[in-house]
Amino acid sequence: MSSSSNLVAMKKVVKQLRFEASINRVKVSQAAVDLQQFCMQNAIQDPLLTGVSSSTNPFRPQKVCSFL
Amino acid sequence: MSQDPLEGCRISAGKKSAVSLGKALHPPNLLVVVEGTCGACVAASPVSAPEGSCSYNVAHHHLCVCVRVCMAWQGLQKGETLASLKQESENLRRKLEEERGKLTDVELHQVAEKVETVAALSIKTRRVLKGHGNKVLSMDWCKDKRRLVSSSQDGKVIVWDAFTLNKEHGITLPCTWVMACAYAPSGCAVACGGLDNKCSVVPLSLDRNENVTAKKKSVAMHTNYVSGCSFTNSDMQLLTSSGDGTCALWDVESGQLLQSFHGHTADVLSLDLAPSETGNTFVSGGCDMKANVWDMRSGQNIQSFDNHQSDINCVKYYPSGDAFASASDDATCRFYDLRADREVAVYQKDSIIFGASSVDFSLSGRLLFAGYNDYTINVWDVLKGTRVSVLFGHENRVSRVRVSPDGTALCSASWDNTLRVSRT
Questions:
Q1: Which of A35, B71, B201, B333 has the fewest CB atoms lying closer than 10 Å?
Q2: Contact call for B89 and A26, based on CB within 8 A
């Protein structure tokens, strides 16, 4: 009967919501600072952000080679 | 059984009675589904009942009936009704909103005001990988930073060397629309799946002459298309997402289902595993507009976010594992912090009206690359929320963008049958 399955489904929803409501949360200001810090710390090693010298770049455009 | 679940029922001997459970059982804490043949009387016909009611044949003051107690009902407290549960769920939802709201003391872009703006990027297409005969739907990088696997609508899966443009392996699947493909951490196998409702693992061999397609092994079985797949930290376990609304964790060797994840109310379109340092969780996004974070061991849905206004096409963890981004058909990408349990940024522009199909972060997490259905890739400043750059080149929808494991290149797959590898 649909009402009993509705009841079971509803019970699951309530249980899930109770679980979600009980987790520990951090303030956005704190979380934002941490995200920013991570970015800054790793920015140097980020090739797409800072670019990479062409000598180490395996995708650099091929140079023309001429016979001497 | 330890207790007679029909204790307290009024039984009319010798008659076949239909009893509505709500009234017959006291206290109403058991849902009884009656089915099967009677154990005691051989000649009795099978007893079956629609859910919610039971009918039983009574003979000689004994109940000759097979009863199965539905476990889900145990623990239903006295007085709980549909109405009271609905009320409680409304209250809980409001409470969740309140709790989340209390912690929003500042916006991410406000905190990031003092940060230097990103210098102009000079990312250009360095390689165009041609070879697929139809739309390229998915791709994944190998950990060796140069190989990649791609899958397309015509059922072909190709393993490429991105430096030399060499096609190293070609696998033909018997189905079309191979929507998911992944490279194994060891680099020795690839997984792929799609409209065949399966995800198969194909070991790659160094022997050129060997037919890799023949060694394909079905691992995952779903009841609808497979939309995404990913190996966990080893080649031994595979995580899949499916159009049947579930995600599942499989053992590759035996094909056994280790854990399934239920909670989405529509097709699941994407999944991403948390970076290994942060533990056993993954995030999934689907057509129910929700992004859910799951515990891989228990199957529990830990957190849920429903900010999007249309299907979520892609989800991706931030490199630190404390946040993730999502791309949606509502033309926005959003950024969520897991510890603050809320959305902290929305990446959108009035001029962007086409859905976003895929997102990935640069190595430091400062840049978010997002592929859109208007054939472009927008590059967003994650902290400031502004667009840094637009990458052009594809001649049809961008279906997937992935940054290489060392962060040096961006690969984009498109419905124009090509993949492009871009670098600074």
A1: B71
A2: no
Residues of B in contact with A55 (CB under 8 A): none
Q: Which of A5, A45, A60 sits opposite B363 (nearest CB)?
A: A45
Looking at chain B, the whole-number percentage of residues with pLDDT higher than 90 is 65
- What pLDDT was estimated at residue A54? 56
pLDDT of residue B48: 42
Q: Which residues of B touch A7 (CB under 8 A)?
A: 76, 81-82, 85
ipTM of the complex: 0.78
Arithmetic mean of pLDDT, B298-325: 95
Looking at the DSSP bridge assignments, the partners of residue A54 are none
CB contact under 8 A, A59 and B121: no
pLDDT digits (tens, 9 = 90+) for B111-124: 888 888 888 888 99
Residue of B nearest to A21 (CA): B96
Cβ-Cβ contacts under 8 Å, A11 against chain B: 72, 76, 80, 85
Side-chain half-sphere CA neighbours of A56 within 13 A: 6
Q: Out of A24-38, B209-223, B349-363, B378-392, pick the least confident.
A: B209-223
Residues of A in contact with B365 (CB under 8 A): 35, 38-39, 42
Indicate the residue of A4, A14, A47 with minimum beta-carbon distance to B85: A14
Q: Which of residues 193-222 of B touch A (CB under 8 A)?
A: none
Interface A-B: count of C-beta contacts within 8 A = 187
For the stretch B27-32, contacts whose Cβ atoms lie closer than 8 Å and that sit 24 or more positions apart, written own/partner, are B27/B78, B28/B76, B29/B73, B29/B74, B29/B76, B29/B78, B30/B5, B30/B69, B30/B70, B30/B73, B30/B74, B31/A4, B31/A8, B31/B69, B31/B70, B31/B72, B31/B73, B32/B5, B32/B6, B32/B67, B32/B68, B32/B69, B32/B70
B363 touches chain A (CB under 8 A): yes
Domain coordinates of chain A in residue numbers? 2-42
Q: Across the beta sheet with B247-251, what order do the strands follow?
A: B226-231, B237-242, B247-251, B257-261
Range among A45-59, B29-43, B76-90, B301-315 rated most confident: B301-315
CA distance B290 to B276: 24
- Quote the pTM value: 0.79
pLDDT digits (tens, 9 = 90+) for B182-227: 999 999 999 999 999 999 999 998 776 677 778 889 999 999 999 9
